[in-house]
Design goal:
globular, alpha/beta, 186 residues, single chain, 9 helices
């Protein structure tokens, strides 16, 4: 990206944080650090933060404490994160389910990474990691569709929707920046 473009956008943002939302596998955790680097922002991955604080994986939290406990931790972490300006935050896919969280998210700019479903399902099926407790031991395609149906109208409340097909993470980050620049014109 051109330095003039980036510097202009940084000035326009005025320290507002950026919250990446979207379904599991949409690339929030991979795109967030790139976005933060380009903007000279701090970066926080909400799931990683929760794992560090609890010294447990997300999967372990879901198994041992339950989803409700995990969602409460998400809310507590968001409440602290918003105190720090100029931060890119990759959220968990379900962070949007609690209305209380929208109060925190709205203090920044909310960007929905809306990934092509065929691409993400293929990505999730090929991924052998245990970090997605809502899919564990289930038909990935059916579960993904069910979860997406519940969340899609909630995701649509984002300030910005960025459609993703199979671009590289840097291209997605640059696409977000171009769309942000368009969205927040002086």
């Amino acid at each position: 990206m051109e330095p003039n473009f980036t510097n202009g956008l940084i000035n326009q943002l005025r320290g507002r944080s950026i919250f990446l939302i979207g379904m599991m596998g949409s690339g929030k955790s991979a795109t967030g650090p790139i976005l933060a680097e380009i903007l000279k922002y701090k970066y926080v991955d909400l799931d990683v933060l929760i794992e560090k604080l609890t010294k447990k994986t997300i999967h372990e939290i879901f198994i041992e404490e339950g989803e409700e406990y995990f969602r409460a931790l998400e809310t507590q972490c968001l409440q602290e994160i918003i105190k720090f300006p100029s931060t890119v935050v990759s959220t968990g896919g379900g962070v949007v389910l609690k209305k209380e969280n929208w109060g925190f998210l709205r203090q920044g700019i909310v960007v929905w990474l809306d990934i092509n479903q065929e691409v993400v399902i293929k990505r999730l099926v090929q991924s052998k990691d245990d970090s997605r407790p809502l899919l564990k031991g289930k038909n990935v395609e059916i579960m993904y569709q069910e979860i997406f149906e519940i969340r899609k109208d909630i995701y649509a409340q984002a300030d910005l929707r960025v459609e993703i097909k199979n671009e590289g993470m840097r291209n997605i980050a640059e696409k977000i920046l171009r769309d942000l620049k368009e969205k927040i014109k002086d």
